[in-house]
Amino acid sequence: MVNMGFCHKCGTKNPDDDLYCVKCGQSLIIEPTPIVQPQQEPRQEPQKKSSNGSVGAIFIGVIIIILVFVFGFGPHNVVIINGLTSVNALGYRYYWFDVPSIAINPTIFGTFTGSGSLGNDIRVYVLTSTDFINWTNGHQVSTIYNSGVITTASFNVKLATGQKYYLVFDNTFSLLSGKNVSGDITFSYIGFK
To answer: What whole-number distance in Å separates Cα of residue 13 and Cα of residue 90?
Structure first.
């Protein structure tokens, strides 16, 4: 408690030890006002940007690189035939290939041309393994591709995954003439080797 000597109401000078103003009776005791420090806003740390997105993208990128280089994931072209093959009269020649269970867009495509001494015709099939077995035993089968008896053709056939297929050059219709078949045929897919 402090007496300042002057009345803060009327301004009259009062003795230092008086408790009340001699003129207006106002209390001369002034309660000290506590000094209040100005409040500071709590400092906010700058917000860090989440790195989860970039970490996730890096992780996916690493996985893709591992799949490509270690496990051979990517586009694959398997040459079935690139050149000349012979097919005897009343005979056939075949090539088999497996389509992986995890394959994207499995396709067999290419061109072929038959030639022979008494005719230039050949028949080309693409068969599943079950149909191939039945065909070799003389049964009617469903074909994935059947060129018919023809001299030359190009084809492009989509295949199902997880199956074994046969590419067949059929000359069983020719009694006397063997055939030479020139072919450039490829099996293609995206997936693991």
So the answer is: 140
Cα 9 to Cα 36, 94, 126, distances in angstroms: 25, 120, 114
Q: Which of 193, 161, 187, 160 is nearest to 73 (CA)?
A: 193
Instruction: Dump pLDDT digits (tens) for 38-50.
Output: 566 666 665 555 5
Helix extents (H) in the chain: 52-69, 129-136
List, edge to edge, every strand of the sheet that includes 74-87: 74-87, 179-191, 103-116, 152-158
Domain boundaries, the chain: 1-33, 72-191
- Residue 29: what pLDDT? 74
CATH of domain 72-191: 2.60.120.680
CA dist., res. 33 & res. 1, Å (int): 10
pTM: 0.64
pLDDT over 90 at 16, yes or no: no
Residue carrying the six token digits 């799949």: 67
Q: How far apart are CA 99 and CA 48, in angstroms?
A: 49
- Contact by Cβ (8 Å): 147, 124: yes
How far is C-alpha 10 from the geometric centre of its chain's CA atoms? 88
